[in-house]
UniProtKB/TrEMBL annotation:
It comes from the Eukaryota. Residues 265-307 form the RING-type domain. It is a single-pass type I membrane protein. This is RING finger protein 13. Its main location: membrane. Keywords: Disulfide bond, Glycoprotein, Membrane, Metal-binding, Protein transport, Signal, Transmembrane, Transmembrane helix, Transport, Vacuole, Zinc, Zinc-finger. GO terms for cellular component: cytoplasm; endomembrane system; protein storage vacuole membrane. The keyword Ribonucleoprotein does not apply. The chain crosses the membrane at residues 32-52, 200-221. It comes from Zostera marina. One of its GO terms (biological process) is ubiquitin-dependent protein catabolic process.
Amino acid sequence: MQNLCSNFITATVAAQRPPTSKSNDSIRGVSGFLFLFAILSLIPSASSLVHFTGEGFAYTFLDAPARFAVPINAKGICGSIHVANPIDACSSLQNAKAKIALGVGNDDDDSKMRFVLAIRGNCSFEMKVRIAQDAGFQAVIVYNDQDNNSLVSMIGNSEGIYIHAIFVSKMAGETLKKYAKGGDGGCCIGLSSEETAGTVLVISLISLVIILSVLATFFFARNCRRIRNVAQSNPQTMAKDEVDILPSFIFKAANLSKKSMSETCAICLEDYRDEEILRLLPCEHSFHSVCIDYWLTKWGTFCPVCKHEMTSGN
């Protein structure tokens, strides 16, 4: 009887334990890296500087590179500025490279990079860039048509785009337009060392914070699982002398008429037989003495039927 009860109790308690899953840590790790990717994707493209120089003047403006065009590398690019004709660059440009080669417009060196200046509006950023690209320009400078100083991050479909594109303020655009007529003045676009260093620093700090957060979550979850497993493998139990204090009696079939009496032990699921010793818990549930003694001293301090806690004092 004792072996039967102990085996049944062991199987029952093991079935009640929640299965441990090593995939939880993997899920947390993947979630952390997805979060890192989302954070980094929200960081705007590093702004660069437009340097425009000529006889008696020199200007420097901030710009925002287009997300769909070819990015400008650290070396930067230099060329001559041409004002788009029409100015919004929403239709075929009259100052295309072929016409300049025929002598229409100016006489810039054909090997020199050519930038086109266009105003925002009337069509999408992507359309302006594609029209400028078809016209033979290597870069597009789109300036704001509103008086605010905010820089817009231009978006569009990058498929088939192989030139550069940046966005500048209205003041910068009007200044470039004023001095760029006829190709006067040279323009260079490149990342500033301060901006590059700042962007790298921000991304590095965010990456470090995310990685530390993922590691902290991983170790915290692992420690919690260890503590939970230890608690489950070493449950609170009662001492043998405490169990012996609980009342016991000899089973008689005639006693089945009593309200609190059951004819089957809820632990081993065996029917009671005459002359077997039963033990009665404070909640008035009775079990085979060997079954409930093993339960209370090995697996828990509560009634297997109603979960009444033996150590509650009630």
